[in-house]
Amino acid sequence: MPRRSLDPLDDFEPEERYARARLREIMRERGATLSGLARLIGRNPAYFHQYINRGSPRHLDEPDLLRIAEFLGVEAEEIATRDVARRGARRGTGGSSDSANADFLAVPRLTIEASAGPGAFGAEEISYDTFRFSRRWLKEQGLDGAQLSAIAVKGDSMEPLLADGDEILIDRTPRPFRDGVHVVRFDDTLMVKRIARGAAGRFSLLSQNMAYPPIDVAADEIEIIGRVVWKGGRI
Whole-prediction pTM value? Predict the structure, then answer.
């Protein structure tokens, strides 16, 4: 007697398995988390984990599906497990065209802060909202297809360049290092600093505020999370 597969998704249609796999891929690209998407649609984290990995529920409710698709900046059909998304999208947008939404990318805002002061621990990376950026503008900035996320700045060590409460856009796409303003993890602390490469595999973490001295570190002491490519804040 043949052994039954232990994968609960094996009995699903190929389209249903593909939709879940594509959703996982898009989540990785956008820096989204299972718990963040669950909170977005008002569910507990276990609900979305079960949906992705165990196929329960088999299909998302249309309002949940459409909200997740909008949050991730993709067409609902791309992550739908059944052919309902296009009809729902037309009902929910009041006649807006799908192409208008496709002109913008929803970048997740994460519930963590990068210290621009003495240092702060980063919390769990949960996306709670989005910024919508023009895809044309992103392409003009060389960020077409980049892995982007937004976080807040905490502290004053990067003033006047970055102020406490500013929000920054981070390009987390793996790229060759070049000097500039980056978000790094150092000693279990998430920091935003200007990073300059030193000699013999060392780096200098530099503050804009001259009251803060440079921090000299070895390459294996830090994790470069991403390059800061945009900032926004109150005037």
Answer: 0.61
Token output for 143: 């960020």
Spatial separation of the C-alpha atoms in residues 76 and 173, rounded to whole Å: 24
Cis peptide before 57 (omega within 30 of 0): yes
3-state DSSP call for residue 209? coil
Distance CA 22, CA 156 (A): 40
Contact yes or no for 122/192 (Cβ under 8 A): no
Kindly tell me the sign of the dihedral angle through the C-alpha atoms of 158, 164, 166, 169. Answer: positive
> Whose structure tokens read 């569910």?
43
Q: Which of 70, 71, 132 is nearest to 96 (CA)?
A: 70
Q: CB burial class (10 A; 0-12, 13-18, 19+) of residue 36? A: buried
List of the chain residues with pLDDT < 70: 1-11, 83-102, 111-128
Check: CB of residue 48 under 8 Å from CB of residue 127. no
pLDDT of amino acid 7: 58
How far apart (Å, rounded) are the C-alpha atoms in residues 106 and 71? 6
Q: Which amino acid is at 151?
A: I
pLDDT on residue 11:
66
Contact residues for 110 (Cβ-Cβ < 8 A; gap 6+) = 31, 125, 126, 127, 128, 149, 150, 151
Give the per-residue pLDDT at 114.
Answer: 64
Q: Which residue has the tokens 């276990």?
A: 46
Task: Name the DSSP class of 109.
Answer: E
Residue 138: what pLDDT? 92
